[in-house]
Design goal:
By secondary structure, the chain is an alpha/beta fold. It has one domain (3-163): Rossmann fold, CATH 3.40.50.150. The protein is built from 4 helices and 7 strands, in the order H-E-H-E-E-E-H-E-H-E-E. It has helices at residues 3-15, 35-42, 91-97, 114-123; strands at 26-29, 48-52, 59-60, 76-82, 98-109, 147-153, 157-163. It has a 7-stranded mixed beta sheet with strand order 3-2-1-4-5-7-6. It is globular and about 40 Å long. The mean pLDDT is 93.
Length: 167
């Protein structure tokens, strides 16, 4: 694991994960190797599901086709999308499957810093991308959510928590 990617994983756990009550129903989009799911399960979170395009995810498929994957509307308290939103435009879908008051926790490169991120990948300091960043978005421009908390990390990345309106 590249050094910057490993450091980012530890920081994400500290910043995001410990805000989630252990009984909450969690969906991770883009779970890949399963590192986060393993962490959650080993530390007492029991209602976790990982979704990815490829096994060994708990749910294999595309989040944009959630209805065909057995996912019910408003069925998750938390959705985690670390380094996903730059690859796929799925904010509407996330909003649809979050319970009222639910949270989307996401990270993504700042659009203006994606070239620097490519350089860090090339040097081996950061994990290589799995697909193009065709959907880079500034988190301040995200709609569908009633409230957001956004932070810039190391001038390169944006971390956001987005709350769905209670209805």
């Amino acid at each position: 694991m590249p050094i910057l990617s490993e450091l980012a994983r530890r920081k994400k756990i500290t910043y995001f994960i410990h805000r989630i009550p252990k009984q909450h129903k969690i969906l991770e989009i883009g779970c890949a190797s399963g590192w986060l799911g393993n962490y959650l399960r080993q530390n007492g979170w029991t209602n976790y599901s990982g979704l990815d395009l490829h096994p060994p995810a708990d749910i294999v498929g595309d989040i944009r086709e959630w209805q065909n994957l057995g996912i019910k509307p408003q069925s998750f308290d938390v959705i985690i999308a670390f380094e996903v939103l730059e690859h796929v435009d799925c904010l509407r879908e996330c909003c649809e499957i979050l319970k009222p008051g639910g949270m989307l926790m996401a990270t993504s490169p700042l659009p203006s810093m994606d070239g620097v991120m490519k350089f860090l990948e090339w040097t081996g300091l950061n994990q290589k991308r799995t697909s193009p960043h065709d959907h880079l978005i500034n988190f301040h421009d995200v709609s569908y959510f009633a409230h957001k908390e956004i932070k810039t990390v190391c001038f390169l990345s944006q971390w956001g928590i987005f709350w769905k309106c209670r209805r």
